[in-house]
Amino acid sequence: MYSKVVAKFTTHQVLRVPLCFCPLRFIKVYVINIFRSLTRIFRQQLKCYSWLLASVAWLALPAWSQQLSVKVVTEQLPPLQIHHQGEAPTGAMVEIVELLLQQATLDGQIVFYPWARAYEVAQQQANTLIFSIMRTPAREHKFHWVAPLLADTVHLIRLKSRPELAISAIEQAKQFRIGVTRSDIAQFYLEEKGFTTEQNILLSSSYPRLWQSLFDRKVDYIMANEFMWRQKQTFEGETFQPIEVALSLDDFAQDYYLAASLNTSPIIISKLKKALEKIHQSGQYLAILQKWHLAD
């Protein structure tokens, strides 16, 4: 009887044995089902977030491959920077800076302000360039100094019709009034020499007004670069009152720079330096200076 029961079970019931009696087969099937489910979920998620992956890939591109924007500020300073209402800006340094922006593939426009405002904006706003600015120890930590643009000499200028203003040292000028533009390096230079706005410094908001104060005899001298007064004399001709150099200021900083605000991207600064090197090598830089009679 026992043998018959065993035989019957063996022949007819073995295929109906619960899965728990076959652990290896159960594990294999279970693992395969989990893998298939995970694969299906992954494919669905990949489709849903494909746009996100594309965005991440774009952000991962090198920054230099993207268009960068800058703000460029300056002042009215013929023949370097000239702007007339309703007309496009021009001038030697305007042409050079515009060429630099083009070569460096930077998007930006030149905005004219009174010097004090331009100086303030260039210290406060990110990715901002300023020109033409003299480099001094007092200004050294306030900007990134991209590159020198032009070197020139600085003088005390007086009307030729006033020979009584002849001097041989800056100390002798303290008994007279000197005109400078507000917040310009000339103001700080004079203040370091002991001049004050209360006694012998008259501040103007722009160079045209500075010149007018000299012609109207509101001041005895103005501080001016040689290229500035020679250009003004050339263009105004007979209407320009005769002037002459009263004193050359040999200890005055004489290099004009293109500078950038401290929070300007290093990529922008690098692009500008490479662009400046390129236009020097091509001869374009010198050609612009010669066009404006600033180089032989």
Automatic annotation (TrEMBL):
Organism name: Thalassotalea euphylliae
UniProt domain Solute-binding protein family 3/N-terminal: residue ranges: 72-293
InterPro entries tied to this protein: Solute-binding_3/MltF_N
Name of the featured protein: Solute-binding protein family 3/N-terminal domain-containing protein
